Amino acid sequence: MISAISYSQEAGIGIESNGLDTPIYTIAERMPEPKGGMEAFYKAIANNMLYPEEAQSKGIEGKVFVRFVVTATGKIRSVEVLKGVNPALDQEAVRLIKLSEEKPGWTPGQEQWEQVNVQIVQQITFKLKAAFKEKLKKTAQLAVVEQDTAKTGDGIGEHDSLMTDLYSRADVMPAPKKGWEVFYKIMQENYMYPEKAVSKKTRGVVYLKFIVDDQGEMKGLSVRKGLHIILDEEALRLLSQVSQEIDWYPGTRKGKAVNVQLTLPVYYELDHSNKPVYIQSTPVFSDTYEREWAYENLPVAENINGVKIYHKPEIYPEPKGGFSELNQFFQENLKYPEEALNDQAAGQVLVRMIVTPDGYGYDEKIEQSIHPALDAEALRLIKLFNQDKKWTAGMNMIKRVSAYVLVPVNFFITGVPNITLYHLDSLMAIPNLLEFPETEAQPVGGMKAFYQLIFENLEYPREAIINSSGGSTYVRFIIDENGEPTYVHSVEGRVIGYGMDQEAVRVVRLSKWVPAMHQGKPVKQMKVIPIKYVVER
Q: In DSSP terms, which residues pair with 256 in a beta bridge?
């Protein structure tokens, strides 16, 4: 009933004391290893795991991060849960780590040829078999549409009746009647970072979910993915407070108001002096982060029909000539299906494909569907592009590799019969935005100054360190007429997870720019910046 268990070590060189007579290293010249290698460790965990019945009956799965010390004699000491899932699973994970002292046993770490105490972090994943989950589903007679019964006060969390038509994505997203700028302002004015969380340097993202129904009422507020009970409760309080001052326009599908579930990330970040940093966040369709969380669980690469294909290369493939060429190709070759026009269908189709080391795209498949006719047109466009055009291959360890790439194709009706297709993952109509101005926007002080700012302010997220995760994330933003970065967000399909994307977004917001110029006037321009994280090994 388990899936893969991945080995990771905590980065950052340091020595500390933890009740043992000799120092504890977090990085050593030679790190501890299970006897027989990780394969033996995996086998021991699989043979000895006892999936708690309490967690099984509730369908609870997840990853438990356990921190412990491998002593100079190969003993396991100071075992503690760094990030848990459920008390029963946490306890079982601790038991398994303690048991690993004997089965398979550990070879101690070394520093300057001497065996030393080393602290490491081990991730153990609890995953139920698909057949067991299906049995649970049938036994519990789970509804197809999730019923949110979380109660958080002020009536917002009360969702007493099952919504039979609840959408995770719509043609038009729900929006505050007072506008997004007012929403952002109220969020910032009511934002608080609990002192207890600051003192413990607890940081990260709390993901809230809520529903805007077909009447524009906000309900069903609850935590979708928590961080810490103190911050979870504060995030709920924040959005509850904001909801008292904000009324909503409902989302629509095919011109009809519908119930739409949204996800709002609430960021809790600290700067180098341990002071809270406010990061603006925007509600998104609920399936947006589902893909990101699913992506985090993917391996770096896997063998498919004898070919190693990367899910997470250090550098992702992109069209030769850039995405602007792909966008131009779409605009020139798009044939908006009449069937979709008649149904007033619009939105984003996601196409996943593989790019070979030679730059050829193939195996195009629909990742996210919105309408059969639009899905077929998106596939036709991508396949047509792949016939005549090549891609810049993905890279890993300075080698060209086969890699997956996710291409969003957005169909947007601005008024029949005028059709506008945006490749970009935003459907907002932004006035005065030019792709090719006469003078490009530039960072104040040039790109060298920009990357110096990134270097000085970027903090490697703890979860990424624990998982020894790195790679390149891409941040898309618009430089406005005043040189300020706005609409800053990660490029969908280019996220690398573990908090690295959010941290890159935070730092890019700190940058200052000389705006683009066109016909003697400052104008808005969109930029995409890659930011690379490198794990020191």
A: 253
Choosing from 294, 315, 346, the residue where a domain stops is 294
SS3 of residue 525 by DSSP: strand
Residue 137 within a domain: no
What secondary structure does DSSP assign to 294-341, as a single string?
A: HHHTS-SEEEETTEEEESS-SB--EETT-HHHHHHHHHHH----HHHH
Same domain, residue pair 267 and 330: no
Strand residues in 49-182 grouped as ranges (E):
62-70, 76-83, 106-107, 109-111, 114-126, 166-167, 175-176
Which of residues 242, 265, 294 is at a domain's end?
294
Residues 106 and 30 sit within 8 Å (Cβ to Cβ) = no
pLDDT tens-digit map of 259-303: 998 888 898 887 777 888 888 777 877 776 676 667 667 788 888
d(CA 425, CA 165): 25
Contact 503, 470 (CB under 8 A): no
Which residue range is the domain that position 524 belongs to?
442-533
Contacts of residue 454, defined as CB under 8 A and 6 or more positions apart, other chains included, come to: 507, 508, 531
Per-residue HEC secondary structure of 461-488 comes to CHHHHHCCCCEEEEEEEEECCCCCEEEE
Encoded tokens for 139? 């036994």
- Tens of pLDDT, residue by residue over 339-394, are 887 776 766 788 899 999 999 999 999 887 778 888 899 999 999 999 877 888 88
- Residue 323, in any domain of the structure: yes
Beta strands in 84-198 (DSSP E): 106-107, 109-111, 114-126, 166-167, 175-176
Q: Alpha-carbon distance 358 to 401, whole Å?
A: 9
Check: CB of residue 136 under 8 Å from CB of residue 44.
no
Overall number of domains in the chain: 4
Same domain, 127 and 102: yes
Tokens of 374: 């639009």
Residue 365: its H or E element: strand 361-368
Is the whole model's pTM more than 0.90, yes or no? no
- CATH code of the domain in which 515 resides: 3.30.2420
Residue 474 lies in a domain: yes
Torsion of CA 525, 367, 320, 473, to 10 degrees: 60
Instruction: State whether 184 and 55 are in the same domain.
Output: no
Residues in the chain with pLDDT < 50? 1-20, 136, 138-162, 414-430
- Taking every pair of C-alpha atoms in the chain, what is the biggest distance, in angstroms? 78
Q: Are residues 287 and 162 in the same domain?
A: yes
- What burial letters (b/e) apply to 47-62, b meaning 16+ CB within 10 Å? eebebbeebbeeebbe
DSSP 8-state class, residue 433: B
Query: Same domain, yes or no, for 287 and 310?
Result: no
Q: Does residue 417 share a domain with residue 447?
A: no
- Encode 456-490: b = buried (16+ Cβ within 10 Å), e = exposed: ebbebbbbbbbbbbbbbbbbbbbbbeebebebbbb
